[in-house]
Design a protein that fits this description.
homodimer, 408 residues, alpha/beta, Carbamate kinase, 8-stranded mixed sheet, 6-stranded antiparallel sheet, 13 helices, 18 strands, 25% strand, globular, lysine biosynthesis (chains A, B), Asp_kinase (chains A, B)
Chain lengths: 408, 408
């Protein structure tokens, strides 16, 4: 059972979370609890580190020793794990805290963004044998240098899934501030329905499309180790959404969900001489400038010229423009056309694999509403389109209805 | 070099402390820095623990698992040690943080008030060899159970002295918010003089008499391992007071300092039948009630009756009275007379050992000012008296002059 920062933001909430743990213990489970830092604590520590490494008025580089960053910020989860153990004890649930180095959660030496390498469970298992439930500090481990490591932002989800895999847990419950995964954003479509189950692959597509319910890495890990992952709310008692193997999902919809990303931009390099290496000449400088390119479409003209279109988030347009203008002599494009008034709409569903014509149904439905599609990309279980931003709500609502996703 | 909570209360102060470290490094020293938690952090964590173990409205016992208390509160020093290492690095001083379990500072298993058992210094020494100065989280260690332990309040001084002893350090500098040890409280006697040196034994008497400069345990440890201990201010650059072996003090005063304790109370049990076991009958119930008894005087009368007088701090008078009244049938005293308008004045000096008549000079000086002495106790290097509280300032000033302690 993993509780995020808002679920352990103060002692009242820690008690609320502990009551959920007690309920599972009373059902006969050996429970491992994974906790984040109390909401706000990690940010405070990160600010401390930046201030320490780069004092006001200094011309410091802003670089700092990631090993010390890890030592400082890991203190947040340390505090919560001790407090959760105390609250559980107060509720007559035998429990003890475990820091990353005590379990041990063995990680790579990439301080600040370490990856979990191994979790020997002998220590935990021995204490389970004594009836002691475990409260593990999330987000942290121990590196090969014997020092505290952290997994990067959102790493507590990863800690929880990795522990569930290592322990062979029946389930990994991620308690958060939403009560599950919905067919689409309920703020846009009020008939959005909470899914009982969703396949790992679908969740991965939805996670990377901006449904900020679960961290992508934790879903990948769950998929690899077949950890059944439940997303549910800390603040009510309803069942959540189970993220699981597709074989466990009996009534599979063709499309499980509609995702959207509001602030997208489309950049087109017009009339680029089409020659080998042109893509590298364009996307090399963009990568060097730190621009995250999402969709890429290339149209080859009859005149030996090509138009190259790609999308990114609006925040990165200025950076992209500067990088492309600096590389203009190399790329030799005729013009750069930027449309920063677009959004991305995606339909996601495992069922697409076995159902033809899903993309076509999407395009028809949008066309009937007079919505023009600007760019299309597809994967095995996803179709994404760029459209004008002003049609975003209409597109989501139309597709939600088209694919029969409404609730009661 | 040890920096207390007020000396590392924010990043500005940590930078100020780090500049002092850099100065010693530039002088060619291998420096081990010991840091406390930022002022206020430990109290915050202690409150969290109490709230966790005994929620509002519960009828909890207030008892909690000291191992979890240790895990929670040790986070404070963890944060400061990482920040101090980062600030030192920013000043081009190669440094790294060490948690108690990393050094390791091995302690007993008495969580919450552990004692240091051993500090293997191989790890630290190896890093010194690589030019890395050490920043050690104070107040914490690792118990035989492999869990984080803490040394109890003020334990960072003890961490510093123990590390200095283990490392064979030339000196242990305790940076605090006072600039040294004074002949008496400068708020009472403006001619109080900062001592250049003071013997361990004297410091111990002064520490336990309420001069809150150094924790008693750390002085005992320094005395045992002959660690030269300097007390000095974080906030200026003047030399402080060296606490050292008496042999190192060439010009030894007969009396080194005058201590006072304002809020004392004198309790007298009048006409107690004098029989074997009467002291136990009196002080047993007081100890059970948690009353700290300081001075004890017994006067035996001619009639087989004795008067038993003792002192305690005024805060504990109510508790003492209740305990004695409950035990009245057992003790069979005639009356309980309480004077809670007294204070304690002590003169402390190694030189008393070899100089007769020191106590007599004290009594005469007080008598000349018309100050009546109510209780006297003496040790080899100390004479303490209880007097009316209204004479406290006069007594301190008189004795300060009598024993030639004035500065310029």
């Amino acid at each position: 059972m993993k509780f995020g920062g808002t679920s352990v933001a103060d002692l009242e909430r820690i008690r609320n979370a502990a009551a959920k743990v007690k309920r599972e213990v009373d059902r006969g489970y050996d429970v491992t609890v994974v906790v984040s830092a109390m909401a706000g604590e990690t940010n405070k520590f990160v600010e401390f580190v930046h201030d320490a490494a780069c004092p006001p008025g200094s011309n410091g580089s802003g670089l700092y020793d990631a090993r010390e960053y890890d030592a400082v910020v890991a203190a947040g989860e340390q505090v919560t794990s001790g407090l959760m153990a105390l609250v559980l004890q107060q509720m007559d649930v035998p429990a003890r805290s475990w820091m990353g180095w005590q379990v041990p959660i063995m990680t790579t030496g990439a301080h600040g963004s370490a990856r979990i390498v191994d979790i020997p469970t002998d220590n935990l298992a021995k204490k389970f044998g004594e009836g002691l439930h475990a409260v593990v500090a999330g987000f942290q481990g121990i590196g090969p240098d014997g020092r505290i490591s952290t997994l990067g932002r959102g790493g507590s989800d990863t800690s929880a899934v990795a522990l569930a895999a290592a322990l062979g847990a029946e389930r990994c419950d991620i308690y958060t501030d939403v009560d599950g995964v919905y067919t689409t954003d309920p703020r846009i479509e009020r008939r959005a329905r909470k899914l009982d189950k969703i396949a790992y692959e679908e969740m991965l597509e939805l996670a990377s499309l901006g449904a900020k319910v679960l961290q992508t890495r934790s879903v990948e890990l769950a998929m690899r180790y077949k950890v059944r992952l439940q997303v549910l709310s800390s603040f009510d008692d309803k069942p959540g959404t189970l993220v699981c193997d597709e074989e466990e999902i009996v009534e599979q919809n063709v499309v499980s969900g509609i995702a959207h990303s509001r602030d997208e931009a489309k950049l087109t390099l017009v009339k680029v001489p089409d020659r080998p290496g042109v893509a590298a000449a364009i996307f090399g400088p963009l990568a060097d400038a730190g621009v995250n390119v999402d969709m890429i479409v290339q149209n080859i003209g009859a005149d030996g010229m090509t138009d190259m279109t790609f999308s990114t988030v609006t925040d990165q347009v200025a950076k992209a423009r500067a990088a492309l203008e600096a590389a203009r002599g190399e790329i030799r494009y005729h013009d750069l056309v930027i449309d920063d008034e677009v959004c991305k709409i995606s339909i996601v569903g495992i069922g697409m694999r076995s159902h033809a014509g899903v993309a076509q149904r999407m395009f028809s439905a949008l066309a009937q509403e007079g919505i023009n599609i600007k760019v299309i990309t597809t994967s095995e279980i996803k179709v994404s389109v760029l459209i004008d931003r002003k049609y975003m709500e209409l597109a989501v609502q139309t597709l939600h209805k088209t694919f029969g996703l409404e609730g009661d």
